[in-house]
Design a protein that fits this description.
36% of the residues lie in helices and 21% in strands. The mean pLDDT is 76.
Length: 177
Amino acid sequence: MCFTENYYFKTIKYNFINKSVYKDLKTLPKIKKIALNFSLKTVDTKKLFSGLLFFEVTVNQKGVFTAAKNSVISVKIRKGNPVGCRVTLKKQNLLKTFYTIIFNILLKQKSVNSKVNINKKVKKNFFSFTVFNPIKILRLEKHYYYFNNLSALNITILTNTKSCTETKFFLQSFKFL
């Protein structure tokens, strides 16, 4: 059992039962999935393949290309061209990646000179933020040659909460906000 799973079962469930209206353990909020995404404004194969390699090295899961839905003449993108890559984490890799997101990205952002932009858009059941320099935070400087073309990493955490206040409480219990 990893640290985040143990912390969730011991601390966060206890907080939700004591400070909210939940009485049944099965209805408590959980993290359903985490979506990681690199999006580009132009078609650049080096950045796309370095993004796919980044996912395989850090998350141990293969990424998928995302295609353009519409043509954009000013940027020279045709409909159907690859403009990004993404990976959706469920079940097995979810808690391990969540642990690395909490400790490597959010808690160590002050010690490392990197920009982490946390969007204050906490919606009903998800929370998203952007990491502008994922190489320094995840300690991939040794492999700089492979990852120097990375763009900003968008991370979206989807939960099964019922309101925005529950989502904020859930994120505060994990020390996100």
